Amino acid sequence: MNQNPDRPAAPSPEMQKEFEKVRPQVVAKWFDEMQRSGHVVLRTSVLKTVLFALIAWAIVAFIVVTFSAVPISTWIPFSGSGGGGVLQFLLGLVFVVGLLLFGFGALLWTFVFPVVRPRMIVSWWGVQSIGWTPGGAFTLFSAPWASIVRVDGMIVPTRRPFPPTLHVVLTAHASGVQRAPWIRVRSKGPTVVYGVNTMLRGRRREIMAFLMNVHETVRSQRDDA
After folding, report:
1. DSSP 164
2. Residue pLDDT, tens place only, 71-94
3. On the chain, which terminus has fewer CB atoms closer than 10 Å, C or N?
């Protein structure tokens, strides 16, 4: 067990594979931009947004067509002639839950993301995730590097045949974090764990490597001061 939260633990075999796939030229390009302008803006990927919206709408359409083509009595167990069993009832519940979840996702990726346009600003000060409304920009999550304890990655397993996915996470002292009320974080004692927006433009492993690079540079400069 890693006893010092400020000291990164040795990467797992899965994380080591992610590091080996990082394209150094991409991380170097972002870091050069940091050196020139003092910040890098990682914007929401239009391609990812469109792709997720299309998938969500396709699933919603499939569920709606299925409900339209199958008599209602099929989903009601023991309803007499034409009634379904418990299995059909449970399947109907799964479809209803799926309709709610993917319907919400479809609306989110079709209307909310294009308007709010979430983005992450990485600077020598720290990390800021912001959105936009007609009234101006607002903060989703913000923390200075002085409060950020660790930049890390988390491999999340998924259902077959989909491969596990990488999520970039920031661990920061709660006292130095500013966030919108609806932004979820995981509390770990005096620190909170924030998951970086998965819809940002660029590969997650390279965003993780870039954030680690900047964090280590800022820490080294602070130690030398």
Report:
1. P
2. 777 766 665 555 556 777 788 888
3. N
The DSSP letter of residue 74 is G
Reference 28, options 222, 220, 213; nearest CA is 213
Q: Which of the 8 DSSP states describes residue 224?
A: H
Question: Distance (Å, rounded) from C-alpha 149 to C-alpha 152?
Answer: 10
Task: Report how far residue 25's alpha carbon sits from residue 4's, in angstroms, rounded to the nearest whole number.
Answer: 32
Alpha-carbon gap, residue 130 to 110, rounded angstroms? 19
Please state, in angstroms and rounded to a whole number, the distance separating the CA atoms of residues 198 and 143.
18
Sign of the Cα pseudo-torsion (8, 24, 155, 200, in order) = positive
DSSP element (H, E) containing 163: none
Beta-strand pair 136-144/148-156: unpaired
CA 64 to chain centre: 28
pLDDT, tens digit (0-9, with 9 covering 90-100), for 182-216: 888 888 889 999 999 989 999 999 999 999 999 99
* Paired tokens of 158: 């998924």
Beta carbons of 200 and 43 less than 8 angstroms apart: yes
Q: Among candidates 126, 121, 116, which has minimal Cα distance to 219?
A: 126
Please give the structure tokens belonging to residue 29.
């390009």
